[in-house]
Amino acid sequence: MNLVRNRVYEMVRRDILSCAIVPGSELREADLAERFGVSKSPVRDAMQKLEHEGLVEIEPRRGHRVRPVSVSDAADLLELRLILEAAGVRKAASVASDAELKDLDAFRNADTASIPLFTEYNRRFHCHLASLSRNKRLCEEIGRMMDLYERLCMLGLTVVRTHNQHVGPLHEHNDIIDALQARNGNAAARMLRRHIGQSQDQILRALESRPIVA
Prior knowledge:
By secondary structure, this protein is mostly helical. It has helices at about 1-15, 30-35, 40-55, 70-95, 100, 115-130, 135-155, 165-180, 185-205, and strands at about 25, 55-60, 65.
């Protein structure tokens, strides 16, 4: 039963974060139970977990819906990312091993033509940077933020989609890697702040144009 509950939770959560279920959508327990071939009980458990995470909210007398995206909340999330990740790379520059910093070369290339593929690569890159800080709590928090950031990307960047729009961010990743491999934590933090700041401006402009955003 726990496996069933976890499967339902993970699949609904994935659909919300990838925007397969768009913000503001109503979530009917009966429909989800039929979709996954389960009773309403694991669906109800999933709704409770997702409500706790802030991804789902209760609609009085109607049930649940995917929580709409607030532009102000998106700005807060991006600001928190900037603060925590800058601290993380600054520490990583001094505590990561030479081998770990060399292994960052694996992130120098990515598919820049696909939003979903680049978004997944971007998540892995930033979470890996966090892990190099040797701070478990920081790593866990950045992992949660990157999950939510993925939803912002899927909502925002599809509005302003251009050919190879991720080439610039990939170059910025390489600049961060160069600074870390040189063990220049201040430079890495400065480049990361600029990197997140640029994506922040782009995403917030795009979110403001979407009718599903609160």
